[in-house]
Amino acid sequence: MYSESDLQSAVAAGAISPDAAEALRSHAASLRLSPAADEEQFRLVTGFNDIFVTIACALVIFAAASVGAQQVSWLGGLLVAASSWLMAEAFSRKRRMALPSIVLLLSFAIGLGTAASSLAGLLLPTHEVQHSFTFGGKLETWSQAVRYPWQEAIMAAAAGLTAALGIALHWLRFRVAITIAAGIGAVVLLLLAGIAAVTNQNLGSNPIIAPAALVCGLAVFAYAMKWDLTDPERKTQNADIAFWLHLLAAPLIAHPLFYWMGVTGGDEISSISALGVLTIYVLFGIVALAVDRRALLVSALAYVLVALGQLFRSYGAVELNVALTALVIGSALLALSAFWTPIRTALVQRLPGNLQARLPQGATAAA
Questions:
Q1: Can you tell me the distance from the alpha carbon of 180 to that of 184, in angstroms, rounded to the nearest whole number?
Q2: Using CB atoms within 10 A of its CB, is residue 141 exposed (0-12), middle (13-18) or buried (19+)?
């Protein structure tokens, strides 16, 4: 199994000609009855050895975290980051293994962020909060060391800043496609944590976080489209970078919208809200078709399942609402997947000509 990046590498090395590579792409697309650009190909696993190496890396990471955490709180994260970098030298830089590279990049970023957050926590003082309760007719008290919301936000900001700087160095060294999205994610965390610190409110309950996250999501989506538009035929690493950026942008866009509609609160939502969720999901589908990326559909899927289940309960299908929800959504997604190319062709042909020329070429080439 060979990926698009392998094919590009073979052309660059002179192993095959560009014409032969293009003929191979066309043949593979004809076998799938779908243009190559519409497949959203990215390299993940080329063989079981990728999984084997990933499991081994995960064990080493777990050991590093466990050993470090038994000494001081920040050492575990630092050891995870250091071991991830060293393993990346072998499996990312030399062997270019996709799945281990992704796991090692994420563990490196999380390890750095955890270490920085723990160190910031050690420097920030805590304050005692007294709690009381009555037991057996006697008043009992106990104290708890807690931090103010701005202190927790500072810890999150330290994690985001340190992770972003480390990820930048990681990109310069290893050039893993997911690195750009991970770095942008760390910057988003830094921005949101900065807002939480200024307002002295927790990230989870801060009313400003949702609109800020939505703005960040739209900005990340625009940045992802910038990478996408540089490679409309999706033949270079730029398409892989855009793929991971879309995966980051999707939940940042979806979560605030559905949060405002009450889907994320855990309570039952009204039928009107459920219909609103379905309407937004349809709009997400139109955008996904236009830009030829399925990330928005996947990120919003959980919210749609909740909303559709609530609709079925509202109309009396209480016992079968889970099964009906799964059946309806599953059937719709299967139909969309099966007819993705003709549906997208019909949609793209209705867009302005200058925009059509810049969008991924799968649908326009098939038209």
A1: 6
A2: exposed
65-72 long-range CB contacts below 8 Å, 24 or more apart? Answer: 65/111, 72/118
Alpha helices in 263-352 (DSSP H): 271-291, 295-299, 301-314, 321-338, 340-348
Per-residue tokens: 48: 């079981």
Place of tokens 């900065």: 194
Rounded to 5 degrees, φ, ψ at 35 are: -60, 150
216 token code pair: 């960040």
pLDDT band for 363, please (50, 70, 90 cuts): very low
3-state secondary structure of 130: strand
Tokens of 9: 């590498």
Could you tell me how far CA 100 lies from the centroid of its own chain?
17
Lowest mean pLDDT among 78-92, 127-141, 235-249, 291-305: 127-141
Instruction: Output the pLDDT for position 314.
Output: 65
d(CA 258, CA 234): 31
Which pTM value belongs to this model? Answer: 0.82
Q: CA 304 to CA 345: how far, in whole Å?
A: 26
Per-residue pLDDT tens digits for 64-116:
999 988 888 899 999 999 999 999 999 999 988 989 999 999 999 999 999 99
- How many Å apart are CA 103 and CA 255, to the nearest integer? 25
CA terminus-to-terminus distance, the chain: 29
Rounded CA-CA distance 154/249 in Å is 24
Work out the angle between the directed axes of helices 237-260 and 271-291 (0-180°, nearest 10): 170
